[in-house]
Amino acid sequence: MSSFRLTIEKWFKNIAFTGYHHPVKTCVIMFVVILPTLFYLPKITIDTSLEGMLQKNDPDLLVYNDFRKEFGRDERIIVAIHTKNVYDLNFLRQLKALHTDIKENVPYVEEVTSLINARNIRGNDNQLIVEELFEHWPETPEDLLVLKNRISENPLYRNLLISDDDTYTTIIIKTQVYLPNDKKENNLDGFGEDIAMDADLAKPSANKNNTGNVDLITEAQTNEAIKAVIDSIETHKSPTIKIYLTGSPVLQYFLNADTTHDMTLFMGLTIVTISIFLYAIFLRMSGVVLPLLVVYLSLLSTIGIMAATGAVLKLPTSILPSFLLAVGMGDAVHILAIFFQHFNKSNNKEAAIIYAFGHSGLAILMTSITTAGGLLSLSTAKIAPIIDLGIYGSIGVLIAFFYTIFLLPALIALIPLKPVIHKKTRVKVNIIDPLITKAGTIAVKYPLRVLTVSLVILFFASIGLTRLRFAYNSTKWLPRDNPIRVATETIDKNMHGSMYSEIVIDTGKKNGLHDPVTLKKLDQSTAYLENLKSGDIYIGKAWSVTAILKEINRALNNNEKVSYAIPGDEYLISQEFLLFENRGSTDLEYFTDEQFKKARLTMIFPLNDAFLYMDFLDSINHYFQETFPDAKYVLTGMIPLFCRTLVNTATSMARSYIVAFIVISILMILLIGDIKLGILSMIPNLLPIAVILGIMGWLKIYLGPFNMLIGSIAIGLAVDDTIHFMHNFRKYYEIKNDPVFAVMEALNTAGHAMLITTCVLSTGFFIFIFASMNNISTFGMLTGFTLILALLADFFVAPALMVLATGGNNKRRKKGMQKNA
Fold this sequence. Notes:
Layout: H1 2-21, H2 23-39, H3 59-71, E1 77-82, H4 89-105, E2 109-113, E3 119-124, E4 127-132, H5 141-153, E5 168-175, E6 178-180, E7 214-216, H6 219-235, E8 242-246, H7 248-282, H8 286-308, H9 320-346, H10 349-376, H11 384-414, H12 423-445, H13 447-465, H14 483-495, E9 499-506, H15 516-531, E10 533-534, E11 537-538, E12 541-543, H16 545-555, H17 570-582, H18 588-591, E13 598-605, H19 610-627, E14 632-637, H20 638-672, H21 675-680, H22 683-698, H23 709-736, H24 739-766, H25 774-805, H26 810-820
Antiparallel strand pairs: 1-5, 1-8, 2-5, 3-4, 6-7, 9-13, 9-14, 10-11, 12-13
């Protein structure tokens, strides 16, 4: 093993020698390597959608995409207006003005629906009339009373367009699925005014069977529509009303904005913080500029590679830039710490950089490999952005390593440097080093006590681990006073839901939905769903094609309430559907296919913790299996995707932790060259993760798509300090075969750098506390504390384990202590 180490050290010295003596050539070659990755930087995009959390081949996502291809978008932009009484003429004028403004001025909109243009089916002199609810504008109190009665007689309006207490009403906006190529931004001009139907009761803008000449609407165009809606809301604000905006596209829009803002903020704060640390360490600007330049180029190359390979920045991967800035700094810091130490003594740049590479090259190689291995374990996840974080995070770490070893010698050769020795430096060392020495002394003098205390802490943490559970609710990521969170919670409370989900039932035969038995089962299913409740989980609204059929049947029977039912004759059902279509309405396209084989049942849920939906959705699945044994059905939409993401998060966390442990353990054994010491070296890395997860359980901090990253990321980072300690311990143990001497020398040699890198890394994660989203700030805080605990474990637990593992008995330890004293 010694010969292998010497060979590697010689290889690193040769790299430093070559780079130092050919600096211009080295920089030109590196520029040629880096430049292609920079060309792709403008192509990087951000995606915070729920679908983006899943892999493209995920079964639930494939079902959801098939549904959208056939029936169009299920997402809605929801504008809710609160007033004292909806049935007030002044308010209704305000509602109409806002409705008209949105309809005329918001681009890429397929349907705008409110009470103003809601479908109203009635009978008059044996004729079926299909019109808008406000076909005739009310002018008198009597007209308002007639309007109120019509609304109260139609169950479909309730909790969809108007609240139970008549103080909330909604405008539901459905954006286009497809954008015809031959239409520009004036494609709203010329829309027919015959019948403006509910977005949930209306046809798609493009023929679903003929999409050859159309393009899918882009996220940028959807965002443009949302911005226009926000502008309309601002225009129509009034002291007498309060307007709320929500819906899954809106939530995604604001999450994108927050993510972009946070990334910029984190980058700036990370650079400032790291610069302060670097200057405090090296007391010279070159010690700040050189590491920042190398790591910033590494970051740009990594982001460029992401863009070149089609990856996008999503919520979990949004931490990648600031993460790589903090992590990539470690390589340069370890090299420069040794370089400046020797340069200040010798005033010989060449000798100092060659010595620094020989001393620390193998260690930073080992830390880069293990950090990349820990991150790469995330690639076994089933959550798409976490896979990306694992893949591109590990690529970024390795790029930072290669840029460090090739660029640093060349840059040091090119810039003028003078040796600097300050009294402040000695004072700083005299403050830090005695603390590190004291920690090592305690560890080697009382190893059993140190391990006993560690086991007690682990015991209490294990109790907390049993209380740990998973959760996923994107609105809870936002602060309590965030407008989109307030709007979502307000609409969920007063309109009983803002998130759409769908059930598609395939009868398997043409005109299967003309069968009265099937339709009655379908109608009973909507009633079952609206009465289904499990704790805080319920369905605020459920409806299907039976709602239209019952309206038609009532209208054709003198508007009698008793006729609001499913006809018992198949022929009569087919004729009523035909009569409705002949009146010019295309609403049936929303609910069924052209052959009446499939039925679409839409549900609206309040947004809650995905964990709570699991059993609820199981109940729905069980009900439809029993109710429609001869038909095929699928349950899809936002809520099932939420649950799928939660399940994938849980399984991914367990898998990635196991893979990270196995991969890093193998690497540690290979790099240390001793199976026993390699396995023991993992204990100081696993202990802090177990403790922090236990604390999360005690404090009821739930595991979600972000918090689950703590283990894999922390073990990959924490092992860096362990490697530096073990690398030096092994080297000094081979000299004297004395564990006490080896521990103290290892801490005296590497302890200072271990403390510095942990300060830089933990501060880099603590910066996330300033995030606008709670989940990111919690992740940053917990990961930062995990790294601090890992450093303490390396200062206390690792030395205690090494002393006991190498046979350091009491007499031998005392003798070793006396010698080192």
